[in-house]
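User:
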Amino acid sequence: MAGTPTPESEALLEKLVAALVRGGVMTEAEIAAKAAATDRASPETGARMVARAWVDPAFRALLLRDGTAAAEAFGVAMAGQPPLGVLEDTERLHHLVVCTLCSCYPRAVLGYPPHWYKSAAYRARAVREPRAVLAEFGTVLPAGVQVRVVDSTADFRWMVLPARPAATEGWPEDRLAALVRRDHLIGVALPHVA
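Assistant: Predicted structure:
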């Protein structure tokens, strides 16, 4: 089964953990805590951050200025993580996030990346023909909207702040957060009111 650890990978992981502990880099408890935090991370965190930004101008400004600080203010431990940048979509500009080299992804706020995000086809085509890739996800943008493809790297991770859907004025944060999905935070889809 794909994603199931092999005995070889389990043995390698045990050796790595032992080396980190023996070298004083991390304790077993710290390693376990990091693994648990990664397992708990999910796109709901990013969705809640977006919803807060839609209703709270001060948080929106922080999110766009320093995504890492905004995530930490939201209770997400970012120590040891690459910085988080947030890209704001507007009426005239749409962002699409890709990692052209591998699968760099802001796991602390979005959880594990989808399988297609790591595929060679997505990584190459998102750069060469972003509108075609978006269309395959059902996202067709007007001709006047510029598509900016942004490369997530080992040094800097990106998340999209999608435009707030029309007809959501006065909605509470939890209702707004329910509109936001992982694909909106990568930029392959747009949130909308059903």
